Amino acid sequence: MASETTTAESYVEKPKTLAALREEISSGRTKAADLANEYYARIEKKNPRLNIYLSFTKERAMAQAAHIDNLAAKGDPLPPLAGIPTGLKDVMVVQGAPSTAGSKILQGYQPPYDCTAVARLEAAGAVLLGKLNCDQFAMGSSNENSAYGPVRNPVDTERVPGGSSGGSAAAVAANLAVATLGSDTGGSIRQPASFCGVVGVLPTYGRVSRYGLIAYASSLDRIGPFSANVRDAATLLGVIAGHDPKDATSSAAPVEDYAAQSDKPVKEPGKGGLRIGVPAEYFAEGLDPEVRAAIEKGIAALEAAGCAIKPVSLPHTKYAVPTYYLVATAEASANLARFDGVRYGYRSPRSATLSDMYSHSRDEGFGAEVKRRIFLGTYALSAGYYDAYYLKAQQVRRILAEEFLRAFAEVDAIVTPTSPFPAFKIGEKTGDPLAMYLADIYTVTASLAGICGVTVPCGTTQAGLPVGMQILARHLGESTAFRVARAVEAANS
Ligand code: GLN
């Protein structure tokens, strides 16, 4: 059992690579079942302090591990994620397993079906260990909005892991899973990846099916992977990406071999290097000097690897946070209407009348941040305010997207800090929702524009806190983002 006096360092541990584990499992040197048990034992040790896992899917995990061990014993070819211990942010549904979205209102809800992303992970041989803590309904930037308590950052347990997919990032950082999935609506994969020192991927909107993802803001929500290195993240994206007849917004574009693409250097022999855009708007006031220094060092490494570095301009960036919080809360207020005490989860016992039951169930079942957003969103959509707020936000969203398109005519990728500061202390920003919203300043733009990106570790501060570089690429440009991320990773290792 981890005690309060355990040093922070003991929580950080790098998982083996997919390639190394695959080799061990296919040669029979490691049994998938033993590997799963090893992870459960480590979880038992570290989870009481870190609060990463909310629930376990052990029976399912051990059945899958036995299946993989059988294949290996027969010498059958193994699927790409054979025996890999994985975890899933608790906003994705798994048949018969608790799926809470970090909320009280969905406590006890056991969905009757699997989300597409987990079905694809398992078809590729992955072993699902359990469900990971997150901000309630994926609303937050610190994982402090979970109804089940905050996750602690394995790098420094007094600090937040970022949010909302804090559990997914922290699980990889502490080696409580080799890889995990999270969701990103305004930064919830990229920012926690940055805070915990792991790799996180924001796929292009529609690249990964949202079927079975408990919706926050449907025009922004994406599912993507976390891992300890870029190549593994690319492999994982290749597994979960692709058209799904169950999600009308999923893209029919062919899925590239992202892992193989990521092997290409940023400068191929006989060709010009990739063109990297640096937007001044992301290096303005409010950026922590140590974060700036780490990102500038990363940019210098890209230049040394043969990239051409160019300034680009994204002048509407300053409107992105208010635009995002209007669009996201408007959609959230509609999506969360379904949680009424009738169809799912929690029902208040204080229900003299039907309308009492609705309001008490919602009042008692939703946390403060979720309610704040339902209010904001309902207000932005209400008659008389719709044009001034929601419609205006949609227009600004369009301008932001066009600005990126123009920039990508000149450059192959854009690099920025992922967050203006490293992981902050637990409790530091909870009293000031606006300060918390501003933490998303560098991530919400790509969310609004629908483009893709990767966050990759790019140095640490003097206090040892990880800094993540955000690498953005055009729609369906994941391969390019992975190539750039590989170069940054190589310079840092
Ligand atoms: N922090 C942002 C928010 O609270 C992003 C959340 C997310 O990406 N799910 O809305």
At a glance:
This protein is of the alpha/beta class.
**How is the CATH topology of the largest domain named?**
Amidase signature (AS) enzymes
Number of helices: 16
* Helix percentage range: 25-40%
Overall mean pLDDT? 96
Number of domains: 2
Ligand species: glutamine
Largest sheet: 11 strands, mixed
Radius of gyration from the CA trace?
A: 21 Å
The CATH class of the largest domain is Alpha Beta
The share of residues in extended strands comes to 5-15%
Distance between the termini: 32 Å
Considering the protein shown, what is the CATH homologous superfamily of the largest domain? Amidase signature (AS) domain
List low-confidence stretches: 1-6
Strand order of the largest sheet: 1-3-2-4-6-5-10-11-9-7-8
Shape: globular
Number of strands: 11
Structural class: alpha/beta
**Do you know the CATH architecture of the largest domain?**
Alpha-Beta Complex
